[in-house]
Amino acid sequence: xxxxxxxxxxxxxxxxxxxxxxxxxxxxxxxxxxxxxxxxxxxxxxxxxxxxxxxxxxxxxxxxxxxxxxxxxxxxxxxxxxxxxxxxxxxxxxxxxxxxxxxxxxxxxxxxxxxxxxxxxxxxxxxxxxxxxxxxxxxxxxxxxxxxxxxxxxxxxxxxxxxxxxxxxxxxxxxxxxxxxxxxxxxxx
Length: 189
Known about the structure:
Rossmann fold, 25% helix, alpha/beta, two-stranded antiparallel ribbon, 189 residues
């Protein structure tokens, strides 16, 4: 199956989730994320501002702040196809940026160097037990993880319905090290 075909199938699966199923799953995922040792130990946690079909990270961000964790969100630099990282003190302060994704205001949120990130929660459309992750196709996270100074633990956050037997990969795709779904935590190392 090609990446494009799998993306269409993954989007269909996500659309098929009932709102009540989605809400219950997000609550369980927000709880289970903290059972991943590398996430629980993180002093600086990179999150994503979820799109409507992705697992919400709002509750995770609030819990992280309660735990004294530095919460970081990416800002898309469309001209270079890179992510710029910024500390966020309050997730509600995110504003709409590139591609309609909420992001930090660079005028108000301090920039964070990539080597300061201890762990990241990564979105996607599909995942497999080998650590394969199918994103939306722009490669922003793969470019971030390929930086020589990247050292953070890579944890995917997905709905159980997004698991597939195999994600097609390219040489530049960087595998996940764990995935959290409402069904539990899968260690992929």
